[in-house]
Amino acid sequence: MRQARFDAQGSCVRWTESNGSDPARVYVHGLGAASTVYHAHIAARPELVGPRSLFVDLPGHGISDRPTDFGYSLEDHADALAAVLDEAQVTGAEIVAHSMGGSVAIVLAHRRGDLVSRLVLTEANLDPDPAVTAGSSGIAAYEEEDFVANGHARVLDKVGRLWAATMRLADPRALHRSARGLVRGTRPTMRAMLMELPAERVFLQGARSGELLGAEELVASGVRVVAVPKAGHNVMFDNPEAFAAAVAGRW
Question: Which residues contact 155 (CB under 8 A, 6 or more apart)?
Answer without folding.
Answer: 134, 138, 139, 147, 167
